């Protein structure tokens, strides 16, 4: 689960969590919306428009 940092309102997810979430969302039998719901995150977090996911 995400780690809450004192004094901040945002959640920080581990790199491993982020990579796994994106891998799952790219599987043919899974949708980004379904993965987001299963992981309790917003579907936008899996969007290719996220700067973290661009390389």
Would you write up a description of this structure?
There is one protein chain. The chain has 55 residues and is mostly helical. It contains two helices and two strands; from the N terminus they run ββαα. The protein has a two-stranded antiparallel sheet. A hairpin with a 6-residue loop joins strand 1 (3-4) and strand 2. The chain is elongated.
Present the secondary structure layout.
Elements: E1 3-4, E2 11-12, H1 15-25, H2 32-39
Antiparallel strand pairs: 1-2
Helix pairs in contact: 1-2
| Ends apart, CA distance between termini | 25 Å
Strand/helix succession: EEHH
Percentage of β-strand residues: 5-15%
Shape: elongated
Q: Count every beta strand, where a strand is a DSSP E run of 2 or more residues.
A: 2
User: What's the number of helices?
Assistant: 2
* Helix share, percent: 25-40%
Radius of gyration: 12 Å
Describe the largest sheet: 2 strands, antiparallel
Mean pLDDT value:
77
- Summing up helix and strand content along with how strands pair, one would put the structural category as mainly alpha
**How do the strands line up in the largest sheet?**
1-2
- Which residues sit in consecutive blocks of at least 5 with pLDDT less than 50? none
């Amino acid at each position: 689960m995400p780690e809450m940092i004192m004094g901040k309102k945002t959640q920080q997810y581990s790199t491993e969590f982020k990579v796994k979430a994106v891998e799952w969302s790219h599987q043919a039998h899974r949708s980004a919306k379904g993965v987001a719901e299963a992981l309790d995150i917003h579907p936008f977090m899996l969007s290719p428009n996220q700067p973290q996911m661009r390389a």
